[in-house]
Amino acid sequence: MFAVIRTGGKQYRVSPNDIIEIEKIAGNPGDIVELSEVLLLGGEGAATTGSPTVSGAMVAAEVVEQKRGDKIIVFKKKRRQGYRRTKGHRQELTALRITEILTDGKKPSKAAAKKAPTKTEGETKTAPTKPAAEKTAETAEAAPAKKAPAKKAPAKKAAPAKKAAAKKAPAKKAADDAAPAKKAAAKKAPAKKTAAKKATAKKAPAKKS
After folding, report:
1. Which of 33, 96, 103, 146 has the smallest number of CB atoms closer than 10 Å to its CB?
2. pLDDT (mean) for 127-156
3. Rounded to whole angstroms, how far apart are CA atoms 15 and 178?
């Protein structure tokens, strides 16, 4: 037995256990949906056509998945106007598996999949409380032994610092002693120059008469 149905502005020829993709309809995977727009029934004797639909006929289907189709590119252009537009589109689709083709106003034998009941706030179970003595014993066992506090290092004495300062002092004195020696050498230099001048004066030959 087969049927021709209309949904989403399109027509589909379906039989039990067929899987079809139609324009998106509401429903979660596992839900049973009813397609009531049956245009034609056939398979047993003469085909029955509707005007526009067959009265009392219905097709039951199970939602397999909600998906999207392949992308198509929409391009628009107006020549000599500098107008170009490019857009993409993916159609929302629903995959269905046909379960039954019903006539004479019958209802689907398989009901929609029931969701697992969610627990409310009042139904949530609380853990049994333990006596205070047991709690303290458990916490004492679980708590690790405390580590001894680390000893602080003794403060260093200031005496070595003073010794270092005392050692540095002679270096300064040596620098101070070197400074006067340089000054004395600088003062002695002019004396040599005067002695040289006197020697040249003595060597000058006497003028002839």
Report:
1. 146
2. 58
3. 119
